[in-house]
């Protein structure tokens, strides 16, 4: 169940999840045990994860602690139930209480350029009309500048 990943210093657990409201229902599962800072990773890293783990079919979330692959939602649940998850998170800093005031803890906010529509009006060159916004994702969201821990 534990596969080594590229060496990293001991860091808080980092589940890989899709954007809030559009992903796996297991995502909130990993926010319960244990209490510690969690970092959201965008689902665009799935291909990189497939290469690291040598698997082509993956479900999210996936958890790494200190550069070591721990598992997905089911593995985390099993480790928690048998009391083994505690040994993986010992020594990690405790979670800060409170929720980001800007995004409410979701890690994403509406795009300021298109107001969440993912469309912008453009008058460049010969093309006049609406185009896809290049600042946000397909849902009209951008990473929260206040609390997002991931740089793309």
TrEMBL record:
Q: Which InterPro entries match?
A: Thioredoxin-like_sf (IPR036249)
**Cited Pfam families:** GRXCR1-2_C (PF23733)
Q: What protein am I looking at?
A: Uncharacterized protein
